[in-house]
């Protein structure tokens, strides 16, 4: 019989949208079974929610520490914990489980601040027994990984421009006032929970990770301009950043949570000396490849000239894959890594180090915007 | 604790692509657990494959009849059987399980011939205890169901033109000769297995079902022209059909398995007296709505003006869903129907009756093409 | 000084939309000057309209015969006549001018019926002195000619499927009744003026010409189904046709004038043994090229791998060209042909023979639809 | 008879691409006749080129001053001069003609530097007799003007984000070295000719003008980062700019001439409190309109809900218009303005004041980039 990983969950309770996504992602390839969870600080609520997931009452916890302690003592205790709480608690929860030698899958951002990120990174790197995976799920789309492959194979040449954006409308078209802001934005308005910057920690972190993941470029300096939603609402809502990369490339980064009227969403373009690339999440199964000299190519997931992407696809070309398929790729690879314990194989799931870099980027953006000057990475 | 349905599988063994899709679809919402299977006529192979799915050896069968007999006697026997064998055996397998009062999820086509379809339909309608669902999965995309809703709400007006196509290249760009045809097309070249017409049973059935599912129109007559791949290869490869509907609408239907160079795929357009609609599987989260008088609208899954589609979506707007998400919608609804046993609720999964209609359509196409004349439905 | 061709116009008066298009097309490359015209049977109206085009009063005629007679006697008489009347008079006007040895540019369709077309074709071929060009303008888009080139260069291989459509809504979203039909459709409802079939002569002729122009395939038989707009309105409004080509290819042709809610417009797809092509007029500067084995390419006008299209482009890649640019390509080439009198050079403007073929196609469609059977070409 | 404007040309000789565009634009609506030109400093070349345009020898000049002097003395002298030389001479030529009371159509940029722009602007505003039009031709696309109308009608609400870019590859995919740079970039590498910044004066000026033209927003401060193509090549090749607008909106501006592999081209997005807009030149007949609450709309030129755009369209919806059609709109309106001399009518052609603003923007960008700080407008 195949070994199925026993998964515990922290967060992701009744009001959590991302909770359901994590659970679906864990199920898709049949490599995990959800056995325990800390879904709420209210013990009754945690149990009632757990029962909808078929989790036994005595493994539905109201405190993640008790969960870690208890599960570490059970013979059939969990193998992996998946953390899907808001950013403010990522570090402390991850560290508690890591110290008890649980493997960790954590929702992004890596941590709520750069300070926390550095501590967590240190904790992770010190423990060689555990596997840590970060659900920067957009990086797990087959055609994003194809893009990464094209870059690393030199097909784009020397990168000269990077243009990435993640643009949403969190208020869904509604008018937001200082009065109703708390209702509209919920915990995202509380810096202790959302961390150093709402727009950057919630979606900017994805955009920056995506650009780093594909290009592998190192930044040298950045200039940021962060805007608040409204002077009376404590919420960063728009950030535009210019980036200088060590190789001389120039970058433009834009993220916004008040972009009315559309899910322009997540888009990345990379221009190199040999070709350019464009990928947009709204049309995720295609990757536009524009050679310097030659017709534009539309590479399609798992299709001709995109064989590499087949490694991350479950469905044939012509059959679209989406958000949960990509998310599941991370669960799938973390499972393979835990089960095979083969550190030498190439894994593509986002790592703690990648998380640390995004936290540093956000930290630098805040610093630059406040001081209105270029800041070194 | 929530009741989880115990699922048995017939077919879907090591060489089956669709097998993995069914399994993923069954897992996504956590409403099924795969407990038994008849994966191969080779007992050893069935067991070894079953073990990769964590199925106990004694519930890995090499014969679907023994599986049905055994499972019906177990106290913890399966609740539902999912049939994912090639078309030729759909009828006999489904009937065997239905007679033992198992609920059935069957891959398409409903049956390999119209004769078989009529028999199977009769068996299903006679047994009031069981639920039967047919995985015409394309009909389960959120925006396809949105299209159906717009039609039934009268937003399109009286339908005047229906244009549907499903176009693929089964040989993946390779040259096919009478010599290598068996290798390229596998069982699809054997009429006993693939049924009355390869192109119509394999993909045409989806296109026709989709058009019926959305429009609800009744056909009155059709004129078909079916072409073989090559005179020495016994494989229908192209079918074009004109359809007259009872309400006076005109239809064009096209399906092809030798369309070089692309996954033009599955596309449907419906033109009515008030508006027209377009949906293409390659971009499944959007539905083009063109009012007679007014700007074109791009409706997006779970977004403004497409609230109804949220009922079939797991992910927020701006976050694409794909093929397996749609497939899982059928498993999800069949589970709800079995568990709630509420026959009055509106369910949207494809039914045996819909399967019967597609079999009749294919039957009529073959008849028309042979006789070169219009045939009554 | 460069020789500028003196152009006379028949039709295209105050209420004519196409008249302005012809005039713009004649001006774009500076090879014509409009000197005379027969814009109306009302002499005063013809003069007043002519004066808006700076045409002297005595060269504004109210009768095309007098115009031909008079201009043929003037030393500075016109070199070319452009005919832009409704279809019913194309033959008689063209023949009258041809007999006086004027070069002719004619709007489509070639003639209103196949009978007229055969006569006109005979008149044209008998007169070796004149140049005749037919404004099937869609064939003059740079990327349509690129498509023709790819086909003739063998890049598509042996053609197996042709799919062409031209779909419009002539009533602009309005409800049409037997009562207001004459107001909505104007002369298009009068068979003497519009010819044998409104939808086929007005737009179907373009679609069929386009498919022939690009593929060069010869048809062997067709099966057509033509529908009237409404039983009380004498107007063919929808035609769907299946075509067998001599090389074994299958075709689907669709044209409609009552397709609510959109300008789906003119689209052609060609599938061959090596690749397939797609071009849509709504996005005319791009041509989708799908090789049997390899990524989809988007060829762009005058850009990499589409050098041939530069021959028909005035503007750089990245700078779109449209309908009048294509229309002007025909005027441009006819001028070159007249001025150089080089019969051996490759010209790409549509010819009388191409016009004859479209008239034959329409004739066969009407015959097939009436008799509900396959008709030989 | 209608009054036809007599047009003289300065520049636009044999090697000029833009020269042909201006001439086509002047011809399309039949409101100009080209009568004179200064096409080259070589008298013979000017005459030989002029003769291809049917211009009499004695009106083919080798010096624009002699042209202005001579034409001002002829009774049938030109009414308008169109200047299509490189940027460095725009000011001096325009001023010379304005002082002789000729109307002027000038290619962009308004002037090569802000100093020159201020002088030219002063000259223009002092002469009340003449009409001055600037060919920022992208602003004349029907759907750009539709965008401007939607903004001014308040349909977008208060603008919060502006995102504009114009991205090209001037070297057409070729490798450029310090050695071959002069051959590849021609006069664009000479600051005296191209002006203060190659990328900003040549294409950045279009992008900035477009954003100003549509939004009407006033800038308050900007932060720019300009990059040279290569340290040994004196050519600005990439500029990214953040803009603060007086109303609080944030802007991102990007222009590049070394973006390999594609004509990503000219794109603008505007986000307001009520809706957002997107227009891209590659698909110019459509405008994406995303209401805060409601489905995305695709407005089409001259079609439903875009009636205003019909004012600037020559062709029906479903029939694309392109670059020269837009360019001709400017010639058309300048002609109307000259002929009617109606200063109160709304004209939409770009003005000297708009030209002055773009020159100031470029000046400020250079200053900001050099000093690495925010600069006031």
Structure explained in plain terms:
The structure is a homotetramer of 377-residue chains. The longest helix of chain A is centred in the C-terminal third of the chain and has 20 residues, at 352-371. The mean pLDDT of chain A is 96. In chain A, the strands form two sheets. The first copy, chain A, has a nine-stranded mixed beta sheet with strand order 14-13-12-11-7-10-9-8-15. In chain A, strands 3-2-1-4-5-6 form a six-stranded parallel beta sheet, sandwiched between helices. In chain A, 34% of the residues lie in helices and 25% in strands. With 377 residues, chain A is an alpha/beta fold. Chain A folds into two domains: 5-138, Rossmann fold, CATH 3.40.50; 141-316 and 350-376, Dihydrodipicolinate Reductase, domain 2 (2-Layer Sandwich). In chain A, a hairpin with a 2-residue loop joins strand 11 (265-272) and strand 12 (275-280). Chain A has helices at 17-27, 43-52, 64-73, 90-99, 114-126, 142-152, 181-185, 191-194, 198-215, 323-340, 352-371; strands at 5-11, 32-38, 60-61, 80-84, 103-106, 132-134, 159-167, 219-230, 233-245, 250-256, 265-272, 275-280, 286-291, 296-300, 375-376. Chain A is built from eleven helices and 15 strands. Chain A is globular and about 65 Å long. In chain A, helix 4 runs parallel beside helix 5 (114-126), helix 6 (142-152) crosses helix 9 and helix 9 (198-215) packs across helix 11. Chains A and D meet through strand 7, strand 8, strand 9, strand 10 and strand 11 of A and strand 7, strand 8, strand 9, strand 10 and strand 11 of D. Strand 14 of chain B pairs antiparallel with strand 14 of chain D, so a sheet runs across the interface.
């Amino acid at each position: 019989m195949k070994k199925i990983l026993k998964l515990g969950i922290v967060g992701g309770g009744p009001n959590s949208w991302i909770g359901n996504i994590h659970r679906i992602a864990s199920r898709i390839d049949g490599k995990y079974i959800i056995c325990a969870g800390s879904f709420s600080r209210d013990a009754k609520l945690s149990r009632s929610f757990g029962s909808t997931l078929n989790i036994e009452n005595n493994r539905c916890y109201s405190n993640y520490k008790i969960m870690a302690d208890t599960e570490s003592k059970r013979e059939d205790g969990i193998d992996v914990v998946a953390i899907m709480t808001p950013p403010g608690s990522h570090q402390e929860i991850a560290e508690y489980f890591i110290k008890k030698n649980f493997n960790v899958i954590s929702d992004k951002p890596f941590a709520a601040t750069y300070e926390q990120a550095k501590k967590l990174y240190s904790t992770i790197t010190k423990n060689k027994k555990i596997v840590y995976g970060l659900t920067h799920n957009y990086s797990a789309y087959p055609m994003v990984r194809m893009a990464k492959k094209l870059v690393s194979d030199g097909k784009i040449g020397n990168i000269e421009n990077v243009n990435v954006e993640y643009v949403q409308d969190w208020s869904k078209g509604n008018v937001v006032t200082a009065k109703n802001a708390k209702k509209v934005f919920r915990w995202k308005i509380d810096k202790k929970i959302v961390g150093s910057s709402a727009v950057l920690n919630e979606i900017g972190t994805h955009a920056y990770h995506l650009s780093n993941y594909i290009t592998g470029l190192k930044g040298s300096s950045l200039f940021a301009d962060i805007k608040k939603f409204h002077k009376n609402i404590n919420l960063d809502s728009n950030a535009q950043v210019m980036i200088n990369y060590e190789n001389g490339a120039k970058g433009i980064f834009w993220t916004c949570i008040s972009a009315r009227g559309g899910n322009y969403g997540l888009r990345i373009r990379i221009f190199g000396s040999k070709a350019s690339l464009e990928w947009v999440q709204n049309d995720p199964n295609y990757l536009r490849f524009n050679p310097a000299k030659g017709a534009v190519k539309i590479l399609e997931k798992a299709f001709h000239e995109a064989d590499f992407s087949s490694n991350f696809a479950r469905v044939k070309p012509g059959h679209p894959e989406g958000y949960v398929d990509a998310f599941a790729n991370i669960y799938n690879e973390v499972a393979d890594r835990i089960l095979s314990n083969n550190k030498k194989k190439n894994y593509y799931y986002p790592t703690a180090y990648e998380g640390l870099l995004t936290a540093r980027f956000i930290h630098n953006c805040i610093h630059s915007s406040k001081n209105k000057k270029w800041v070194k990475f």
